[in-house]
Specification:
The chain is of the alpha+beta class. The chain has 12 helices and 16 strands. Helix 9 packs across helix 11. Bound molecules: glyoxylic acid and manganese (II) ion (2 copies).
């Protein structure tokens, strides 16, 4: 690969070329898949460690597998402004969900290092090892460890091949029982901020390259199971003699669309559905599906989940089906700190970009980091709002303006107490 141009000012072409370089580490031959504790992730971690060291940072892999770099302030050991994002991906991913935030942060430090600039705080960058939760079902395993909210029971969960997380850590050269060594103390950290692609269409629709995030929406995820009666597809007449679990599930899917579609900013998705036993000539006796419900307001989300479960119960009662549910995830809204939003807004305005606030519909490491410190996020426009898809795309110009705004934010960063006094 032709070496991307180096400069002390963030350069969009270089940022995208570095994301391309990370995307070469994939378990999928013609696409990008990089899951927690995989060989590809170990390789990417080594690349990022090297980049961090090149820009004057000390760098290490922590006890859960996160890459951590540290750029000291005017004296060693100062509390740190923590930047970062994640290095794992979904299956058949795009190149920017996660890596862009890590690369942008490193490019900011490159600029400071080139000018010999130090601040009265340290800068740390995390490349989190697991945000997507693809391998072991539970999400945010890297940042939860750092925030001290990792649940040790996760170590016994298994991936698709039956490998436990404990075994996978061992295979990756990490001691699973040592995960608490990844926990950070509150007094070591001033804030956590992340640059990330928007993953939605709002900025593009408003013709803006950047947006300041107000909150990361809360999420509820449930597994729903409906039981009816399997039967012969040719002999059981249509109507009340059938107890078709999938037809009941289909009505439930439409109820999700109707109920969630009626409330502003509420979204509800059935992302997986399964008919059992699953044969062309058998009436489905069981159906399983998931719901994923998100809103910027916890009360709105909780009320919607209650309404959905009641609607499912009524559909099943009318069809003489039985219904059960299991909670997979309950995550409350993570509000971005107003003092960090104000500093991001100043940085965006200084780049000549109109300031727009927006909530994040996608989950991010801030959902976990908020248990450790205040959080802030800057969104960069992506084409068509497409994400979790190989067609994810960001322009050089947008990557550059986003990284410049992040650089300004860092240069002008005032920790909470100083910010409040100003
Ligand atoms: C993670 O990307 C999520 O929002 O589900
Ligand atoms: Mn992400
Ligand atoms: Mn993602």
């Amino acid at each position: 690969m032709k070496a991307p141009p180096t400069s002390s000012v963030p350069n969009g072409a270089r940022i995208l070329a570095l994301c391309d370089e990370l995307a070469r580490h994939s378990s999928q031959p013609n696409g990008l898949t990089r899951i927690f504790l995989s060989r590809e992730q170990a390789a990417v971690s080594q690349v990022v460690l090297g980049w961090m060291r090149d820009v004057g940072m000390s760098a290490r892999i922590d006890a859960i597998g996160n890459v951590v770099g540290r750029y000291e302030g005017t004296q060693p050991g100062l509390p740190a402004l923590v930047l970062g994002s994640h290095l794992d991906t979904v299956r058949d991913a795009g190149k920017y969900d996660g890596p862009l935030g890590v690369v942008a942060a490193i490019e900011c430090v490159r600029a400071f290092h080139a000018r010999g600039r130090r601040f009265d705080f340290a800068i740390e960058i995390y490349g989190f090892a697991d945000e997507e939760g693809v391998r072991f079902g539970a999400t945010l395993l890297g940042s939860r460890a750092v925030a001290g909210t990792f649940r040790p029971a996760n170590l016994d969960t298994r991936d698709r091949s039956g490998i436990t997380m404990r075994q996978a850590m061992d295979d990756a050269g990490l001691d699973p029982d040592q995960w608490p060594a990844a926990i950070r103390r509150r007094d070591e950290v001033l804030a956590y901020v992340e640059l990330h692609i928007e993953q939605g269409p709002v900025l593009e629709a408003h013709g803006l390259p950047l947006g300041v995030v107000t909150a990361i929406n809360g999420q509820s995820r449930y597994q729903i199971e409906i039981a009816g009666m399997a039967g012969h597809a040719g002999t059981v007449p249509m109507g009340s003699l059938r107890r078709d679990a999938l037809a009941g599930a289909a009505e439930c899917v439409l109820a999700v669309e109707r109920i969630c579609g009626a409330v502003p900013d509420l979204v509800g998705t059935v992302g997986t559905i399964e008919a059992l036993p699953g044969a062309v000539n058998v009436i489905p006796g069981r159906a399983r599906f998931t719901i994923d419900v998100r809103s910027p307001h916890d009360d709105v989300r909780r009320r919607a989940v209650g309404e959905l479960l009641a609607a499912f119960a009524s559909i099943c009662e009318q069809r003489h089906l039985s219904l059960s549910n299991r909670v997979m995830l309950e995550s409350r809204v993570a509000q971005c700190a107003p003092w960090l939003m104000a500093q991001f807004e100043a940085a965006v305005a200084a780049e000549g970009v109109a300031v727009r606030q927006l909530p994040s519909g996608a989950g991010h490491d801030g959902l976990a980091m908020i248990d450790l410190t205040d959080i802030g996020m800057l969104f960069v426009r992506c084409r068509g709002g497409i994400s979790h898809h190989p067609a994810e795309s960001v322009t050089e110009a947008d990557a550059a303006v986003g990284t410049r705004a992040l650089l300004r934010f860092i240069e002008n960063f005032r920790p909470a107490a100083a910010g409040a006094a100003a």
